[in-house]
Amino acid sequence: MEQMTETNGWVPVPLVSPIGNIVRYPNSRHTMKEIFRMCIDDLIMNGNAYIVIIRDDSGMPSEFIYVSYNSVSVYENEEGDLIYNATHKMFKNKTTSDSKETGFTRNIHFEDMIHLKKNVINGEITGRGLIYTASEVFGLALAAQETAARTFNNGAAMPGFIKTDEPVDDETATLIKSRFMESQGGVNRSGAPAVMSGTTFVKTGMSPAELQLENARNQQTIEIARMLRVPLYKLAVPSSSETATLEEQEISYIHNTLNFYTTLIEEEFNRKIFLRSDMEKYRFHFDFTSIAIPDFQKRISAWAMAHTNGFVTSGYVAARENFPIPSDDNGGNQYVVPVNQAVISGDDSVPLGLSNHDGDKTPVHDTPMKQAEEVQ
After folding, report:
1. Count of domains in the chain?
2. InterPro entries of this UniProt entry (predicted)?
3. Domain range spanning residue 95?
C-alpha cells in the first residue's frame, strides 16, 4: 500500500495507520502474503479466488477474509449485480453486505468481494483453471509418476516367466519359483545372480531405462512449467535462455508471468477498497524491486544519477535502500540539479558564483563553480 507525497512521490503507507496495518495483517489468522499465496493457487488451478471485505461504519475496510473457491457460489440478480454466497467461520460476529445476516453463510455484494478470475469464456461470471483447460497434461504427469513408483517398488525386477528345458511337475515349479524369488525379490536383492540350471528367464516387461521414466517425467515437468509460464531455471531444470544474466531472467519472469496476476489484484483492490476521492492519494501496488534487484554498485550508481539530475531526493533514496533517512533540515526532502542544466537568466536564475568588482562590467570567477545547487 502506497500513498502520494509532494516530495517523494509514491511511498509506503506507515504501518501504524489503519489502512497500512490491515493490508499487512488483514485478519487475526492470516497475513496478506498468506492470503495471496492461497488465492494464486486457487486462481491457477480452478480459475477463481475470493477475498471478502469487512468494512467499518465509515465504509473503509477493516478486515480481509480469504474464502476457498469451493465455498463460494455466484449468481446475477435482476439488476445485473453479482451476488456471492460465501461460507466461512470467520464471518461470525462480523457485519457483511447485509447487516441483518448472521451465521457462517452470507450473501456478499460484488463491491465487498475481491473476485480474481482467469480464462473467462464468453463473458462468464466465473473463470476456469488449468484443471478444466489442461487436465490431460496433469494426467500424463501423474501416470508417469505412478509408473515410476510401481517400477521401483518392485525392486526394479522386470516381470517375466521362467522357462525350463524339461517339463516339471507343480512341486518342482513351485520350488524353482521360490528360489528365484529368494535371490531376486526385494529392493536390496534385486539384480543378484541366481544359479539355476536348466531354466531360462523370459522377460515380458521393460527395464527403467527402456521405460525412459526420467525423460518422461522431465518432459511433463517442462510442459507444466510452460502452461504456468514459469521459467525452467526456477525449477532447477537445465535450459537454454536468451537472457545473459539472472537479473534479465528475473525481469523477463516479472513481465511475462507475474504481471498478469499482480495486475488483477491491483485493479480489484484499487477499485473496491478506496473511495473515488482517495484514488489519487492511495494505491495498492506490487513492488518488484526486491526480485529483480541489481548488485549494490549498480544500484548506487543509478541512484546517484537520478539524484544528481533532480529525479529523486536523498531521503527517497535512503528509504528505498534502508539507509538512515536524513532530516529535512539536512536536505532530505530537497532536489538538486547540475548548474549547467539550471536556468541562468531570468527571475529563476541560479547563482553560478560570478560577481562584479569595483564597477567592472567584466565578470570574473570569484569562487570555483559549483557542481550542484539545491533547488527548493
Report:
1. 3
2. Phage/GTA_portal (IPR006944), Portal_HK97 (IPR006427)
3. 2-130
